[in-house]
Every structure is written in structure tokens, then in C-alpha cells.
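Hi all, posting the design record for the shared folder.

TITLE: backbone redesign
STEP: 1 of 1
STRUCTURE INPUT:
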């Protein structure tokens, strides 16, 4: 469901970029994004997600307190040494919508 809504938004965004630059429908969209120094929608999403994780790890005062312990390193979960001890450990959250 999310992918279909994102796909519609992506197509609309591409159409707007073509209209602004007065380019035909067949023109490559990556060149159009580069010429206006824009990021495609998928890249904007990834950038915002990475920025959120960065703030959760290093700038906890800039985010709501509910997200402060959302991402933890594996070394914070257990004390033994493993190869992935510096990787992120994402806590599983169970939600019931009844």
C-alpha cells in the first residue's frame, strides 16, 4: 500500500520537474534533477531517515524524548565481543490496534 502511494507521488514529482523545465515527457529525469540540484523522492526519504538516526544517536536533545533509545548499538545490548558490536540494534515494538 505504501509503495503505491509513493509511486503516485514520485510520478507527480517527476511531472512537475519536467513542467518547470519545459522538457518533453521522454527526457531523462535524472538529468533534470541534476540541473536544478534536486534530489529524487527516494533520495529525500533516505536522507531524512539517515538524519533521524543520526539525531537519535548523537543529538538526543534535538528530538522528542520518546525516540532517545529507539536505536542502540549491539554493544549496549550485551557485553561480549562480536563482529557486529558497533552495528545498530533496532528494538522490536509490538503494537496492537484493536
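Okay, here is what came back for every position:
SEQUENCE:
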Amino acid at each position: 500500500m505504501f509503495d503505491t502511494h509513493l509511486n503516485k507521488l514520485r510520478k507527480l514529482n517527476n511531472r512537475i520537474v519536467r513542467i518547470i523545465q519545459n522538457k518533453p515527457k521522454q527526457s531523462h529525469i535524472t538529468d533534470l534533477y541534476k540541473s536544478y540540484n534536486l534530489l529524487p523522492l527516494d533520495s529525500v526519504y533516505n536522507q531524512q531517515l539517515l538524519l533521524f538516526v543520526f539525531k537519535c544517536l548523537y543529538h538526543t536533545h534535538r528530538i522528542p524524548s520518546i525516540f532517545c533509545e529507539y536505536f542502540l548499538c549491539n554493544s549496549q545490548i550485551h557485553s561480549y565481543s562480536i563482529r557486529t558490536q558497533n552495528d545498530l540494534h533496532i528494538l522490536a515494538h509490538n503494537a496492537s490496534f484493536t
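COMMENT: The two ends are 20 Å apart (CA to CA).
Let me know if anyone wants the other runs.
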